[in-house]
Amino acid sequence: MPDDNRIAQLLDALSTGLSQEKLDFLAREFERLAQDRPQTLTFFVLQHVCQRLASALEGEAVSVERFEELTLGIVDQIQEILHDVQRGSTSFHKLEELVATLFRNLGLFRG
Amino acid sequence: MLAVDSTRYCVSRDRAPQLIDVKFPSLAAELRAILIEKSVCHGSFTLASGSQSDFYVDAKLTTSIPRAALLVGRVGWKIVKETATARNVHVDSIGGLTMGADWMALSIGIAAYLDSPSSDIQTFSVRKFAKKHGRHKRIEGNFSEGQTVVVVDDVITTGDSTLQAIEAIEEAGGRVGFVIVLVDRQEGGRENIEKRGHRVVPIFTHADLLGSDARRQSHSAVA
Prior knowledge:
The complex is a heterodimer. By secondary structure, chain A is mainly α.
């Protein structure tokens, strides 16, 4: 099925880690998936998480340590969500956790 | 009015007057010195491609300096003219992926106008993502279907951002004449772009910037 291939390709891309260029690529792909797959909310959240992270990494000298802080836990969580999509299920709790990880990594929680 | 130190600069007698810093043998040499001083950082960095490097080039710190922008314009325009003539290409517009390419494209466009007002070369900018509303445009500024353009980028590593711009331009019906980059990090980006059939002309390479003098003069970005 072509749609399954698209998810498999994204999982394949994630398996070699993140980079700003890869996050831009993932954000573009998730945006397309949000527009032509039924799991609109899932892909919309994934798109925005990747886009926010790519923006944080863009256009400045990012030290290796800072890069690791910013991307900590993100790959595993996106992979889990994509595996759920492949199984035809959606976990809003996992989306919530992913956004919380993003906010924590970016230092956006004010509490 | 531009304040000029008369002991440092002279005004050439060319048709289009230009300030030349007498300390440097050429405009490119002065631009290289500014890049080394302002843009080359040493430390331990993760690059946009995900690879790690002991240096980072933040070209915007140079291209956003008015004096350096003037140099980028003059040097870049000379390359555009020479390459376009050699490849028999008529250039309609200059641009690339925002935001690295923006200052560079406008600088070269202004230099083109000062040198040859009748050339009517325009500039444009390519968004990373299409606009969410309106006409969903990815290319802003003066570009239209059927035009031949020069794609510019400030720094290339893998060439991904340059290729993104090229894909957007071709999708919109443009033709890419050739590519000019301010700094080629010599990590495969030029080859990746040329594999797709686009000639890449770097103004500077990694080797130009990171000689022993460059390393000594540059600042450290990571404490």
